[in-house]
Write a structure and sequence with these properties.
Blueprint: H1 2-20, E1 41-47, H2 54-68, E2 72-78, H3 96-104, E3 112-115, H4 126-134, E4 140-149, E5 152-161, E6 166-176, E7 179-180, E8 183-184, E9 190-191, E10 195-196, E11 199-203, E12 210-214, E13 219-227, E14 237-245, E15 248-259
Parallel strand pairs: 1-2, 4-15
Antiparallel strand pairs: 1-3, 4-5, 5-13, 6-11, 6-12, 6-14, 7-10, 8-9, 14-15
Length: 260
C-alpha cells in the first residue's frame, strides 16, 4: 500500500516535470511594463535684480505653480546683463554659473525662460508651453532626498526607467527660497524687501551634470554631497534634479533639504 502510494507520487512528479518541458522558455515569464511616470516640467527663469519686467514673470510662475503644483519646477537663474553681483551694502544674487548658462543659450533679453530646454521664450508664452510639455509622457521616475549634517548636504537621487532606454545627463542644483534682496520693479521703483524664491545657488554635480543611463525596468541610485555655504539659510534650501539630453528635459524633481 505505501509502495503503491509512493510510486503514484513519483509518477505524478515525473509527469509534471515532463509537462513543463513543453512550455517554451519565452512563455514562462510574463513581462510587466513599469507604470508610466507623471511628467514634471522644468522652467529655467533667467532673471535679474535690475530687470524691471522680471517681477511680472515671477507672477506668471506663481500662477502656474498654483495651477500645476509640484508638476512644475521653477528655477530663478540670476545671470546676464541685468543680474546684480552685489556690493558691500547690497546683496546680489548673480552667479558665475548663471552667467555661463545665459551666454551658453545665447539669450538676448530678460526675463526669458527655457521650458524643458526647448527654445527660449518670453514669459507671455510660458503657460502654453508648460501645458504642452505636461501632456507628454516621461520615460522615467525621478525622486530624491537630502539632509544636512555637520555642514554637509547629503543627497540621494533615485531613478527608474519606465519606457525604453534613457541616456543623457543627470543635473543636480541647489536652490534657496525666501531671500529678501533688492529688486527693480515694473513702475521703476527699487524694492529692498523683495522676496526672491527658487534662486539658483550652485550646481552640485558640475555645470552640466554627469553621464546618465537607465533601461526600462531598471532602478538606479546616485549619491553626492554639497558643502553648506555660510551665506545660505539651511531652512530654505531645496534640491532640483533633472535628466536631459538632446531631446530636452526628460524628467525633473524637487525636494527640500532636511536640517536635522
Amino acid at each position: 500500500m505505501w509502495r503503491q502510494f509512493t510510486y503514484t507520487i513519483i509518477c505524478g512528479i515525473c509527469l509534471l516535470l515532463v509537462g513543463c518541458d513543453h512550455i517554451a522558455e519565452d512563455e514562462r515569464l510574463i513581462y510587466e511594463k513599469p507604470e508610466p511616470s507623471q511628467r514634471v516640467v522644468l522652467l529655467e527663469d533667467f532673471t535679474g535684480q535690475r530687470c524691471v519686467n522680471c517681477p511680472t514673470a515671477t507672477d506668471v510662475i506663481e500662477q502656474l505653480q498654483e495651477t500645476y503644483g509640484e508638476a512644475l519646477v521653477a528655477v530663478g537663474i540670476h545671470g546676464g546683463p541685468l543680474a546684480f553681483a552685489g556690493n558691500a551694502r547690497v546683496l546680489g544674487l548673480k552667479t558665475e554659473t548663471g552667467d555661463l548658462y545665459y551666454n551658453h543659450w545665447k539669450l538676448e533679453y530678460q526675463p526669458v525662460g527655457l521650458i524643458n530646454r526647448r527654445e527660449p521664450v518670453n514669459y507671455t508664452e510660458w503657460a502654453t508651453i508648460v501645458k504642452e510639455e505636461l501632456a507628454k509622457p516621461s520615460p522615467l521616475h525621478l525622486l530624491g532626498s537630502a539632509d544636512l549634517e555637520d555642514g554637509t548636504i547629503n543627497i540621494i537621487i533615485d531613478a527608474e526607467g519606465t519606457d525604453g532606454t534613457v541616456t543623457g545627463k543627470l543635473q543636480v542644483w541647489l536652490l534657496e527660497d525666501s531671500i529678501k534682496a533688492l529688486q527693480l520693479m515694473p513702475d521703476g521703483s527699487s524694492n529692498q524687501e523683495y522676496v526672491h524664491n527658487h534662486v539658483f545657488r550652485t550646481a552640485v554635480n558640475g555645470i552640466w551634470g554627469e553621464d546618465f543611463s537607465i533601461n526600462e525596468g531598471e532602478i538606479g541610485e546616485w549619491v553626492m554631497t554639497q558643502d553648506l555655504d555660510p551665506s545660505w539659510n539651511p531652512e530654505h534650501l531645496s534640491i532640483v534634479a533633472f535628466v536631459y539630453n538632446d531631446n530636452g528635459v526628460q524628467q525633473a524633481t524637487k525636494f527640500k533639504v532636511i536640517d536635522f
